[in-house]
Amino acid sequence: MSDLYADIINLPDDITNQIASVLELRATDPQQQSMSTSLLKDLGTLDNAKVLEIGCGTGAIARKIAIWPGVAETVGLDPSPIFVNQACNLGKEFKSLRFVLGDGTDVPFSDESFDVVIFHTTLCHIPDSQSALLEAYRVLRNNGQLLIFDGDYSSITFSIDNNDPLQICAQEAQSIISHDSFLIQTLSKKVTDIGFFVIKQRSFGYISENDSHYLLTVLDRGADSLLKRGIVSTFLAKALKDEARYRLKNGNFFGRIVYGSILARKQS
Ligand SMILES: C[S@@+](CC[C@H](N)C(=O)[O-])C[C@H]1O[C@@H](n2cnc3c(N)ncnc32)[C@H](O)[C@@H]1O
Q1: CA-CA to 257 of 20 to 30 Å: which in 41, 204, 206, 212?
Q2: Which own/partner pairs from 10-14 qualify as long-range (CB within 8 Å, at least 24 positions apart)?
Q3: Per residue in 104-124, pLDDT tens?
Q4: Which domain holds residue 24?
Q5: How many domains does the chain have?
Q6: Average pLDDT, stretch 51-56?
C-alpha cells in the first residue's frame, strides 16, 4: 500500500469515487472547517483576486475560496477526471468558479496569471513537489501569495500511554498516507530556495472528538497495511481496529494529527 493520491489517475474508478466521498465528508468536519477559515484569513485583505487551487479534488476548498471576500475568480486544477467532473457538478451554482484537468507539475496557465496559489492537503501527495512549487512561482504575479496547508503526518498519534499497541497503526499510516510525511518540516527551505519570501508559518492540531470517523479511517489504513505487508495476521489487525472502537465507546480513544501551513510571497 502506498499514497493513493500520488497515483490518482491510475486508481480504479470505484476507489476514486470512495475517496471523493471522503473528501466531501472531511470538508463538513467542524475542525477542518475552522482550520481552513483561519488559514484563508492569513491571506489578509484581497481585492479582485484571481486564485488557483492546485490539487482541488472535488472542489470543497475551491467552493469556499470562491465566496471568500475579495476573490474575483477561482480556478481548481486536478489530474483526476473523476474529481474534476464531481467538482464541476458540485460547484455549478458558484459564479466565477471553474475547474480544469491538469497536473500541478505542468500547470496549463500562462506566467504571472494568478494573485494567489493554494495547495490544500495536496503538496505532500505530489512526488515531485519541487516542480509543483516552481509552477506555483511561475503562474503567480509578482507579490502574489502562496498558501500551503498540509498534514504533518509524522505527528500522528493514537497513544494514551507508553508502548501503546495502537501506536503501530500510527507509525504505519505515516508511511502510506502521503508521499512525504515530513513535508511540513522541510517546507520553509523548499519555498525559500525557489525564491519565495516566507511571511508566516503556523501549526494546527486536529484531535479526536466525539466523532472520530476520520482518525479511525487513518488507524484502519495503518492496520490494513501492516496486514498486507505480512507484519501482523488478520487476528491482530482486527484486534487493533476493535481496540480503537472499544476505546471510542469507553470514552478513552485518543487520536491527533498536527497540520502545518506556510504563507509566502513571490518576490522576483
Ligand atoms: C487530499 S486531496 C485534497 C483535495 C482538496 N484540496 C481538498 O482539500 O479537499 C489531494 C489531491 O491532490 C491531487 N493530486 C495528486 N497528484 C497531483 C498532481 N500531480 N498535481 C495536482 N494535484 C494532484 C489529487 O487528485 C487530490 O485531489
Answers
A1: 41
A2: 13/82
A3: 999 999 999 999 999 999 999
A4: 4-151+179-207+259-266
A5: 1
A6: 98
Whether 127 is covered by a domain: the verdict is: yes
Give Dmax (Cα) for the chain. 58
Quick one: which atom of ligand 1 is closest to the CA of 60?
9
The pLDDT tens digits of the residues spanning 59-94 come to 999 999 999 999 999 999 999 999 999 999 999 999
Give burial (CB, 10 Å; 0-12/13-18/19+) of 71: buried
Q: pLDDT of 251-260, one tens digit each? A: 999 999 999 9
- Alpha carbon nearest to ligand 1 atom 27, residue: 57
**DSSP assignment of 96-155, as one string?**
TEEEEE-BTTB-SS-TT-EEEEEEES-GGG-S-HHHHHHHHHHHEEEEEEEEEEEEEEEE
